[in-house]
Specification:
By secondary structure, the chain is α/β, with parallel strands linked by helices. 32% of the residues lie in helices and 23% in strands. Helix 5 runs parallel beside helix 6 (180-192), helix 9 packs antiparallel against helix 10 and helix 10 packs across helix 11 (328-337). The longest helix is centred in the first third of the chain and has 17 residues, at 146-162.
């Protein structure tokens, strides 16, 4: 039986590269039945700020497999990113982006590069929870969960095991973000122990990114939180040869979405110029996902032959290397003509038949002992002397909670702050339990009631907890 897949042709160059991709798949004998939906710019501009109709969601959820061309999100008007929305609504927690060099046929400084970036796809700063709290300060919440970490890290190791990769590397910034990125690193170390046959390592994201850009052949599979992975997967694709050549898989427990990593390039729309390779690479990943590995192998090898023969679209065409500059349709024709052939200089692919792997569902751990030990009260105050604010805020103290410090943008400014520290109008006032007395939620509420009485503008609170006796909050830079 044919596998039903949902197809969206998208905007800009989307319809052209989708038509080319589907022609290649059908010519290769893919057992698929495309069901088309409309998403993107036209839907947005019809008044639907989500860019997709509910009936289209029903089709995607029924078919479980979604092949999507790039779309255009109109500027302004409160339009939401459909990519982010789709990943979250469908639980597509794993973004997989292979980045492999095609040297010497596509220009690159890294002829030995062959890495796969696996990016957490649902949380981190991409939760999109932002607020303006004062005239001068806005915030974006970085949410990292243990289930999110466990699912993506385990996926990375399972991917390495199934595709015979030798090493998994974790990138975080947990030397600074010790709670959020610290959890990601901790879970990585825990799960790595379950895969002793696979080498594992951790890099701080800044030096790791520099190393990847300079010596990508030092890496194999890299797993990281959402924002870092979004940025570095584009960097990796570009240094491998071109962002236009890279495909992407978004994998969830129920559904999966496959796409090119590039945008809709409206300037090139309708000109028969666009390179369909990125979407085709996404489609090859889709074929592997649905178990049609032999067709995926045939398509990938035909594509490699076409690249090797120097039949190139404008974006990768180079005098002296390329043999023929072709358009979108002609490139698809060349790939179709090569079906059944294998490259002779580039490495042919061979996909084992059962590459779809399942991961255990997350099992919630036994809860730790959670104890309320204080509260951070964020205050909008237009003054400039932290000592003055300290005197004012100490009026909020009660028998259970005493003011211990004030910070501004994470730097302690009271007590014993530096006059050189620049301060905004957004202040964190930390109250901690006094005399070892247990803190109750009503003690926090008492502080807020008192703040209203004292005309102190509180914009946010964060309760401070210990879990199993360990502080589960940042201490604040400058605090011993």
């Amino acid at each position: 039986m044919k596998t039903k897949i949902t197809v969206a042709k998208g905007d800009g160059i989307g319809p052209e590269i989708m038509d080319a991709t589907l022609r290649i798949l059908m010519a290769a004998g893919a057992e698929i039945e495309p069901e088309e939906i409309e998403i993107g710019e036209k839907v947005y501009l019809s008044g639907n700020t989500a860019g997709i109709a509910m009936s289209s969601w029903d089709i995607i959820r029924r078919n479980k497999v979604f092949l999507k061309a790039p779309i255009t999100t109109p500027q302004g008007g409160g339009y939401k990113s459909l990519n982010v929305t789709t990943r979250k609504f469908l639980g597509l927690y794993s973004n997989v982006r292979p980045c492999t060099t095609l040297h010497p046929f596509v220009e690159t400084k890294h002829p030995e590069m062959d890495i796969v970036i696996i990016r957490e796809n649902e949380e981190d700063l991409y939760a999109g929870i932002e607020h303006q709290q004062t005239d001068e300060v806005v915030q974006c919440l970085k949410l990292i969960s243990r289930p999110g970490c466990e699912k993506i890290v385990r996926y990375a190791f399972e991917y390495a095991r199934h595709y015979k990769r030798k090493k998994v590397t974790c990138f975080t910034k947990d030397n600074i973000m010790k709670q959020t990125d610290g959890l990601f690193h901790q879970v990585f170390d825990e799960i790595a122990k379950e895969y002793p046959e696979i080498e594992n390592e951790h890099w701080i994201i800044d030096i790791g990114a520099a190393k990847m850009a300079d010596t990508p052949e030092a890496f194999d599979v890299i797993v990281m939180p959402n924002l870092y992975g979004d940025i570095l997967s584009d960097v990796a694709a570009q240094i491998a040869g071109s962002v236009g050549l890279a495909g992407s898989a978004n994998i969830g427990e129920e559904c999966a979405m496959f796409e090119a990593i590039h945008g809709s390039a409206p300037r090139r729309a309708g000109q028969n110029m666009a390179n369909p390779s990125g979407l085709l690479q996404g489609a090859v990943m889709m074929l592997n996902h649905i178990g049609q590995t032999k067709v995926a192998e045939k398509v990938q090898n035909a594509w490699l032959c076409t690249i090797e023969q120097g039949i190139h679209t404008y974006d990768i065409y180079r005098e002296g290397v390329s043999r023929q500059k072709v358009g979108t349709k002609e490139f698809a024709d060349a790939v179709i003509a090569n079906l059944g052939n294998k490259p002779t200089q580039l490495k042919p692919v061979s996909f084992a038949e059962d590459k779809k792997f399942s991961l255990p569902k997350y099992e919630r751990k036994a809860p730790k002992k959670k104890e309320l030990v204080g509260v951070d009260v964020f205050v909008n105050w237009r003054g400039s002397n932290p000592d003055d604010l300290g005197q004012l805020v100490r009026r909020l103290e009660n028998k259970k909670l005493k003011l211990s410090m004030i910070t501004n943008r994470g730097i302690k400014v009271w007590p014993d702050g530096f006059s050189e520290t620049f301060c905004t109008d957004h202040w964190r006032c930390r109250f901690v339990k006094a005399n070892g007395q247990p803190v109750e939620p009503y003690d926090v509420i008492h502080i807020l009631h008192q703040a209203v009485a004292e005309d102190i503008d509180t914009v946010k609170t964060e309760n401070l907890y210990e879990f199993d006796g360990k502080p589960a909050f940042s201490l604040g830079q400058g605090q011993n």
